[in-house]
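Possible regression after last week's pipeline update?

I re-ran a chain I had predicted before the update to compare outputs. Posting the input and the new output here so someone can diff against the archived version. Not blocking, just want to make sure nothing changed silently.
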Amino acid sequence: TPTPVKASAPKPAATPTPTPDAMKGAWLQVGAFKEEGDADNLKAKLALLGLESRILTSDIPEKGVWHRVRVGPYNSAAELDKARSQLKTNGIDSAIVKAN
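New output (post-update):
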């Protein structure tokens, strides 16, 4: 008599889901500007959307001073995805960054 075939366990996904700790301190960068006034304008627009943002000013060698506008920090993928969706709905592109 044939032996019954046992079902094998499902294989784990190739890309593991990030743990909640992996998201701690993630920010969304929504703009980088040479002119501080442009960064301030975006910060004001974000405030009208209910998103608190921060301007980080950096002197980048050979490029000069840049003003980066970031939203966050987010401690979970769900919070980050919700904010990204809200930004996209309002025509604002964003990139995930880890900041100190």
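Follow-up from reviewer: compared with the archived run. Strands lie at 26-33, 53-60, 64-74, 95-98. Marking as no regression found.
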